[in-house]
Amino acid sequence: MIYQEAKGKASGDPFCCYYDDEFKEEADIELCVPTKGMVAGKKIVAKQLPKIRAISTMHVGTYETLNLAYKAVLDYAREHSLTSILPSREIYHKGPGLVFKGNPNKYVTEIVIPIEQEG
């Protein structure tokens, strides 16, 4: 749906922005796709995300083990006295395809945690 609304202007891997700081059954999530320029659609809203300072890690494996990647990034932040802020992002570099499911053990997801700017 999101790619149809972007009308061929999609340019990059899909991602989600998460606005909750803990797991919730009904989460505040934005489903996103980078585009070449702003796009308009009946079922989407286009916006430019602000530049951020962040820490990140690449997770290879099933989505069920993403919590391990989050723990590693948040542990790093704590060890280096970095304050994380929202929204966090999951960038889906390799995941289930539209036609073939693919191998979940080979999914590649980047976890991006924004941190407060220094000074």
TrEMBL record:
Top-level taxon in the UniProt lineage: Bacteria
Domain AraC effector-binding: 1-116
Pfam families the UniProt entry points to: GyrI-like
Name of the protein this chain belongs to: Bacterial transcription activator, effector binding domain
Annotated source species: Desulfosporosinus acididurans
Lineage: Bacteria, Bacillati, Bacillota, Clostridia, Eubacteriales
